[in-house]
User: Fold this.
Amino acid sequence: MKPANDFARKQHKYMPTFAKATGKPTVYIPGYPYEDEEHIPTTGFHGEQTNTLYEQISSYFAMQPHIYVGIDNFIYYREGDVTKSVAPDIYVVLGAAKFPLRRSFYTWAEGATPTVVFEFLSDSTADEDRKEKVHIYLQDMGVQEYFIHQPEMEKPAEFRGWRREPSGTIVEIPPDPRGALFSESLNLSFRWTDQHHSHVRLLRPYLPDGTPITTAIEERNLHAEAKKRIEAERDLRAEAEARAAEETDRRQALERELEQLRRQLENR
Assistant:
């Protein structure tokens, strides 16, 4: 239990501060499509990366009622203009109510704009993600940070991020010596590791001190390993206690035997 308590303490320490959204949660506004007529299929690499990071970020912010994490749905950012929309792979809105879930996200109704956006590069959208969307997200929409990442190991590694300064200037986020990029908005660091079994270059979140945020499967494995450790320690303790009991029994038997010998000698 100690590691879990330690993580909870760190989580509380590093949780970002933010103001609540000024609008209200809005599930759907008629006239704004929430499904794409020209659906673009997703690769397995893209899907594993998106689902894994969404799970990690959602789990990390699960106890925060006013942090909304969206995945691959429309964001409309100009009232009355359905063309002003994007559908990022993952986005985080600090201040927006977690529930109810939305069909789309409407910035004017919610009174909030996505704080951080993640796009994972695919052949059909990579150029747009690298160029046009930097302007769309950070200038047109007012997003604070934008990250792109190439999850397919067979392609050159590419992990970049941009931040909008208070002055409105857009700057690229410099990597640290390990290649990680730090999100000031989320107070989390992000870096990738190669998953050779799946050939996915997996982008993962870390606390500022380097502690990784685990997936549900990893958490179950950690609990299973901890349980095995506890059981092994219990077995070793039981074995040691059994040996100690045997040693006590032997010593007591020897003491009784010696006492009998003394009595025999005294009676001669």
In short: Residues 216-267 form the longest helix (52 residues).
